[in-house]
Amino acid sequence: MHAWLCENPIGPEALAWKELPTPEPGPGQVRVAIKAASLNFPDLLIVQNKYQIKPSLPFVPGAEFAGVVEALGEGVQGLKVGDPVAAFAGTGGFATQACVPASQLMPLPPGFDFKDAAAFICTYATSHHALLDRASLQAGETVLVLGAAGGVGTAAIQIAKAAGARVIAAASTDEKCACCERLGADASINYSRVDMRAALKALTQGKGPDVIYDPVGGDLVEPAFRSIAWRGRYLVVGFARGQIPALPLNLMLLKGASLVGVFWGEFAKREPKANAVMMGQLAQWYAQGKVKPVLDSVLAMNQLPAAFTRMAGRQVMGKIVLTTDI
């Protein structure tokens, strides 16, 4: 097998494309022949040693991938060689093969494209858990999506629209705003050139958004929270801008608003039955055409450094997918 190996987590430039022994699955594991893998922001953090999870060295990065079951370890049931699957395993995806626990695999229904499947679990599960579980989003409510052109942002737009909400997408360029509106956003705000609070006031007739979905953090947090509606819910999804912000607690008091943490990975571990139901609904929505990953670009697996460069430059709209087929 071939894989991108991280032996020194100082950044993507230290990764090496190497030939390694093909692993054999242990008890409860499955070996997957990887067809496609997607790039998520934590993949960048983990090779920079900045992520909360720090794998033992050396390791193969790549949290999310899709492919075909190639071999079964002892005790694995419900899967067979040749089955199409997707996984969110934390590491191992930027390779031609990976061994993962069978419990981390999502069997793919017929017609689920491998490139879409590789870009599906993390962003759609996070956004569904955030909007429908943590925020209890209702039809007719208004959702503000920050960083709306990114992977989780584009998923959040689609899920909010599927739930019957009105969506305001906020992004950093006119091109990204246009992408969000093509996905179904009812309005967009380019926060790099307009005052976001003034724009939100105009777009909501002074009421403010009922739910704010924030994977960005940084200096957008306070102006966004100051714009929230009465009884609003502010979803803390991530910190793509790097800075973890602080908020004056009186803002929550004045708006009767809630600050809600979103950690889909922990939810999936603690509430596996609820997570399985959610993933089933998402797979059904994909089959119905209600959700579909936005693919920024599709590159060969050995072009991972170029993918990281594009992500670090904040150029990505949707997800970058790496495939072993080209």
TrEMBL record:
Residues 11-322 form the Enoyl reductase (ER) domain. SMART domains: PKS_ER. Transmembrane segments: none annotated. Pfam families: ADH_N, ADH_zinc_N. PROSITE patterns: QOR_ZETA_CRYSTAL. InterPro entries: ADH-like_C, ADH-like_N, ER, GroES-like_sf, NAD(P)-bd_dom_sf, Quin_OxRdtase/zeta-crystal_CS, Zn-ADH-like_protein. Gene3D superfamilies: Medium-chain alcohol dehydrogenases, catalytic domain, NAD(P)-binding Rossmann-like Domain. CDD domains: QOR1. PANTHER family: QUINONE OXIDOREDUCTASE-LIKE PROTEIN 2, SHORT-CHAIN DEHYDROGENASE/REDUCTASE. This is NADPH:quinone oxidoreductase family protein. It comes from Roseateles koreensis.
